[in-house]
Structure formats: structure tokens, C-alpha cells
Amino acid sequence: MATEKDPESSLKLKLRRVIFGTDTPAGRYFDISLMVCIVMSVLLVFLDTVASVHERYGDMIVIMEWGFTFIFTIEYILRLYCSAKPLSYARSFYGVVDLLSVLPTYLALFFPGASFTMVIRILRLFRIFRVLKLLRYLSEGNLLLRAMMQSSRKVFIFFFSVSLIVVVLSAVMYVVEGPNNGFTSIPKSIYWTIVTITTVGYGDITPGTPLGQAIAAFTMLLGYSIIAIPTGILTAEISQEIGRTRDLRRCSNCLKVGHENNALYCDHCGSELESEL
């Protein structure tokens, strides 16, 4: 019985090395080919929204789109087939992204009528999720994601505090300025405060009283600190995360540290690193 299962197990193992592994030549070629397909398919989505391009090359774009959909469908099926835990993969972030990258094209088949044009357009735009497939190949992206998760509580508390400040400033501006200057309600004032505090400043609502202008100036200055503080929090977490993921071994040739984890050679001079005890 064990020998009967060997061919299938061997095939799964080979596919897993190619699809999930990046340390083999075949795996690298697979990743590069898939990245090219992802970028080209996303470019097709962009071009399809240009009226002149859609009118002239619409049929060709549809054919190419189905070609990419077929490729990504095969990829998704193969990932499910050779995955050690298919259900875990299907529920994972990348599994959902892989499914969303092919689903819209198939769903569009069920809305053939002209009255469903908007539905089809929305489904087609969902193909943009394919760009998220590129995250699989960005190790730095994982580092950034870990840093964001580590700092999420601090950032949440900060933005909660900012929300309270926005509400208070909005209520004050509503009382100070009133409907005559465009502050017709507190929600409208909240809109103005957010636009001002983010230093966007559309100019559709402007304070007319000296006190209101003084509060507006304070809000603008406050905006700079609001941008700087979460940036500082995230930068500190990224720095700590880099420190945790760096190899602390010292190169015997150039005496430098900070190599990639599990590196065999020095990042700076190329000398062989001593193996960890």
C-alpha cells in the first residue's frame, strides 16, 4: 500500500518544491513567471478602464484576461493539491487573495445582460486583488507587517485620542462659526476638522471670525504632529524588528555584524561565516 502512494507523494513533493519553495532553480523560475503574469494582468485591468483602449482592444483584452485567469486557476488548484494542509491554505490570507484573483472573471459569466453592466465592471475591478499576490515574494513586506502588528495597540490609542480631539474641535468650531460660515452641523464641522488636521485644506469651508481662524491655525499646526507621531512609533518598531531578525555573528574578516538570518557568507565582504554553535 505504501508503494502505491509513493508516485502521488513524490509528485506532491516535487510540486511543493516548485510552488512553495524559492531555494530551487525551478521554484525561482516559477515565482518570476508568476510575478510577470500578475503584473501584466493588473496592467490589463488598468488599460481596460480607459474608454479608447477598451473600444479598440476590448476583445483582445478579454482573451488575454481569460488566459491569465486560466493560469491563476491552475496555480490555485495546484497549491491546494500539494499543500500539506489544503484547508489552512484556503483560509489563509494568500489563499483568499488567490481565490479573489480568479473568482470575478467566472462570476461575470452569470451576469450577461446589459442591465448588469455596473455589476460586471465592479467584478472586473476586483481583479486588482491580484496585485496582493506579489506580497508573497516580498520578505521586507512581512517585516513591515510584523512591525505594524507590534505597534497596532499604540497606534490605536493614538488615533483614538486624535478622534476625541477632532470631535472637541468640531464642536467648538460649530459654536464659534455657525451656519453663516458653512459650519451647518457638527458632522460638517468634523469634515472640516479632518480636512484641516490632515493639512489637505480643500477650502470649501473656511472660518470667518478671528477666533475661528485662530483655532484653524492651531488645528493646522496640530496636524504636523499627528502625522509625525505614528510614523515615529512605526519606525521604532521596524528598527526593533530588524534587530530581532538580524544575525548577531561577527565576520572574522571585516568584523561586521548584522547579516541576514541563516546567512552562510558575510553581507559586506563575502567571507564565509562561522556556523552557530
TrEMBL record:
Taxonomy, superkingdom: Bacteria
Domain Ion transport residue range list: 28-241
One example of a Gene Ontology biological process annotation: action potential
Record's bilayer topology term: Multi-pass membrane protein
Gene Ontology CC terms, in alphabetical order: voltage-gated potassium channel complex
Keyword terms of this UniProt record: Ion channel, Ion transport, Membrane, Potassium, Potassium channel, Potassium transport, Transmembrane, Transmembrane helix, Transport, Voltage-gated channel
Primary localisation category: membrane
Transmembrane segments: 32-51, 63-81, 101-123, 155-176, 214-236
Subcellular localization: Membrane
Molecular functions per Gene Ontology: voltage-gated potassium channel activity
Protein's name according to its UniProt entry: Ion transport protein
Organism: Shewanella pealeana (strain ATCC 700345 / ANG-SQ1)
